[in-house]
Amino acid sequence: xxRYVEINAERLSHLHEGLELLEQVDREAMRTLDLxxxxxxxxxxxxDAAKEAIADSEELAEQDVQLSEVAVAxxxxxxxxxxxxxxxxxxxxxxxxxxxxxxxxxxxQSFAFSHYHPRVTLTYFSKLALASSSGxxxxxxxxxxxxxxxxxxxxxxxxxxxxxxAVPATPEAPAAPQAQQMPKQTSLASLLxxxxx
Length: 197
Description:
It is a single chain. By secondary structure, the chain is α+β, with helices and mostly antiparallel strands. Helices cover 32% and strands 20% of the residues. The chain has one domain (4-145). α1 packs antiparallel against α4 (78-85). The termini are far apart.
């Protein structure tokens, strides 16, 4: 059984009609059904919200996060398809995935960490898929995305308070060279004068 099934906007509108009919029969049963719509996007609004969420959760500045695309997992129901196909759906707590850098693989985050919540429509997504769980979002991005990794610049943080480096001892000034005392040159006459005194 596949983890997700690719879908397009036309097939999604047919699914809308089917879900709407099933919800009329048993709305409670439909609430327990876990259906998700996956979408890959490079829309600037969604990318900005994702960058803000990553920066907030990692305690970075938003400009330290560079993203080219994300995959989004949206819980699905007939009303959600209606919004996505019309005026748009506001992303609030939905999960998104992005390619980590430096061998991190795919990372998953939530738009709940973002203060900005974009309104999205189906036209924002380049690829769509239907899944029975949000758990395969990383696999969807890995297989269907461009593979371009995010650039997240970790600032160096101190773990201890900075201290002033020890002040090196000032070397003592070298002693002034002592003048060599030259033996007094005495004349024979002065020697005799000293001897006789």
